[in-house]
Specification:
Blueprint (H helix, E strand, L loop, with lengths): L2 H18 L6 H14 L6 H17 L9 H31 L2
Helix pairs in contact: 1-2, 1-4, 2-4, 3-4
């Protein structure tokens, strides 16, 4: 297991914990940093999937439709929102890396 895979696993774990635990101190900063670092390690063939997942998770987090599920809905919605933030940070880095690869000499 490489460094990139470990960072991605820790990032997802942090997003899930932040979603279930109503956020820990500096949860947003931790998720953003881990997402950005995890985005650096995304392989070129996986970039499109990450960007689509980021869009889907952002829509799922914004809509809040999962909150209507009794008992677990609020937790699921919160976890999806945290994962959306994580994937959003990774997507920004993936886009920047792709732009850099296009313009580098």
């Amino acid at each position: 297991m490489g460094v990139g895979k470990i960072i991605q696993l820790v990032a997802v774990l942090a997003a899930v914990v932040a979603g279930l635990w109503s956020g820990f101190p500096e949860a947003g900063m931790v998720i953003a940093i881990l997402g950005a670092v995890g985005g650096w390690f995304v392989a070129e063939e996986d970039r499109q999937r990450l960007l689509i997942a980021a869009i889907a998770l952002s829509v799922a987090g914004i809509s809040g439709g999962l909150g209507a599920i009794p008992v677990a809905g609020e937790y699921i919605s919160s976890v999806m929102s945290s994962l959306g933030s994580l994937y959003g940070a990774a997507a920004v880095v993936v886009i920047l890396v792709a732009v850099y690869e296009k313009v580098k000499p």
